[in-house]
Amino acid sequence: MPIPPAPSTATTPMTALAGTQAGFTPLQRDFWLNVFGGVLAAVAFALLSWFIARVLSWVQHRRFRQVFGDDVATQDLYHLIYGQYKLDECLLKLAVAGAKNAGMSDCKANKLVGFPYVRPHRPHLRLSIGNPVGGSAVPSAQYLLNAIAKHTGTAAVLTPDQGTEAKFDASFIAIGGPNSNDWTREALQLAANDGVKISPDEKNTEHEKITIDGEHSYFRLDEGGDVGLILKVHPDQFPDRTWIVCAGFTESGSKGAAWYLANRWRDIRKWARAGPFAMLVRVEADLDDSAKPIAKATLGKRHRPTLPCRTYLSP
Asked: 11 lies in a domain?
């Protein structure tokens, strides 16, 4: 019986064409696999980068709250408190009397009382300001507001020290010394048991000194600079609240303290962590970013305010 011939395995032009039309060639398959793999790698890298950025942002956010307090991350719950002032009426009366003695008319003299302020570059334009603000309040608040917005995405509330929003059951940063900001004085009273105080110099009562550890005192710099105090306490009655002070002998000290807190809070956290602390910075006159630490101390974790009765406190 004759053996049938084996089927031919040779590829004809027609079968090659049919195979090409039915699928990809090896070269085409490798190309698309590389494209698909590259897209997956790019997506995975983007997701990983986003995740790492989120984790780092969360870590920075948490560390920032450790220094400034948890309330700093809550919109409209954190206050920047500044001191309010008013012109001494006795000085105004003396100014009017002097103006009249100098031959000024009653109309001009009365205008001097009602509009006692002028612009530096427009001295002929007289202005009336009911409650002037200290020169350190605006730049200090700007430093702190920028830092809070950058690291929490929220905004603090600017509050006068005698406003109805200022109260003990709140977290805040008080700008200015104890003579220019009532809440700086309240915070210093809490920290007095830890040896933190601003007091007159026994040798020269016209000068003040800052003590942060009960022993070592620091005075205003004779060469025109200043010393700034950064203080953080937690009142015992409201342990979840954080009170911070940025104060100095002069406006330079207060502004330098605020700048250092806003821009060097990471350095503070390295040694103070989330607890109360007091530190002093040396500041050159009118150079806020020249602030450098000269002393620091950690404090007790809770402080007991005396809670005096004040008419400007909210119930």
From this structure: no
Q: What is the pTM of this model?
A: 0.78
Q: Provide DSSP, 108-145.
A: HHHHHHH--EEETTEEEEEE--SS-B-TTHHHHHHHHH
Domain holding 161, by residue range, is: 54-85+134-298
The answer to whether residue 19 sits within a structural domain is no
**Assigned token pair, 22:** 């039915």
How far is the C-alpha of 59 from the C-alpha of 72, rounded, in Å? Answer: 15
- Render pLDDT for 142-154 as a digit per residue (tens, 0 to 9): 999 999 999 999 9
* Residue 47, in any domain of the structure: no
Q: Do 166 and 236 reside in the same domain of the chain?
A: yes
61, burial (CB in 10 Å: exposed 0-12, middle 13-18, buried 19+)? middle
Q: Is residue 32 part of a domain?
A: no
Phi then psi for 307, rounded to 5 degrees?
A: 50, 60
**Are 175 and 140 contacting, i.e. CB atoms less than 8 angstroms apart?**
yes
Q: Which helix (H) or strand (E) holds 185?
A: helix 182-191
Paired with 219 in beta bridges are 209
